[in-house]
Design brief:
single chain; 160 residues; alpha/beta; six-stranded mixed β-sheet; 4 helices; 6 strands; globular
Length: 160
């Protein structure tokens, strides 16, 4: 797939449609500062209660959307550890914007990615849609927050 630089063996079938990119690099290098990216990844992976399960892998990826002839970039992908004989469980799909207020459309993109991955055989029943923002969240997005939408601001990322 275009724009995909690597796919570790641990993510082999059926994750071919969700290729992890830059496992140790930027979540979104166009909008993120490297220190914040590292802090964010550590924060996400450190607490299994955040996503309802212990994260097995954290990275970023691209989900092909053939119906719309596009790809959906996912800045933060949190996968549960693989369980033999079971579909790979996606704990969270997230979008990170360092310098922009996040809006409802960001969650809609993540929902679309989740739906596409479910069709491909991933376990997305409890997938959390996470928005990470250094600039905050629109009122509409805040009002739409529910059990499957998590808004994470700087205050949560840098809390002691």
């Amino acid at each position: 797939m275009p724009g995909v630089s690597q796919r570790p063996a641990a993510l082999d079938p059926p994750i071919a449609l969700l290729d992890r990119r830059h496992a140790t690099g930027p979540l979104d290098s166009r909008a993120r500062d490297p220190k914040a990216e590292a802090d964010e990844r550590q924060h996400r992976a450190a607490d299994p209660g955040v996503f309802g399960g212990l994260p097995g892998e954290v990275g970023s990826g691209v989900v092909p959307d053939p119906a719309n002839r596009t790809q959906i970039e996912v800045d933060v992908v949190v996968l549960a550890p693989a369980e033999p004989g079971r579909p790979r469980k996606i704990l969270s799909l997230g979008e990170a914007k360092w310098d922009r207020v996040m809006e409802l459309r960001h969650v809609e993109r993540l929902r679309r990615a989740r739906d596409l991955l479910a069709v491909k055989g991933f376990d997305t029943r409890d997938t959390m849609l996470s928005c990470y923002s250094g600039a905050g969240f629109s009122r509409e997005l805040q009002a739409a927050q529910s059990h499957d939408i998590r808004l994470v601001g700087l205050d949560q990322l840098y809390a002691d």
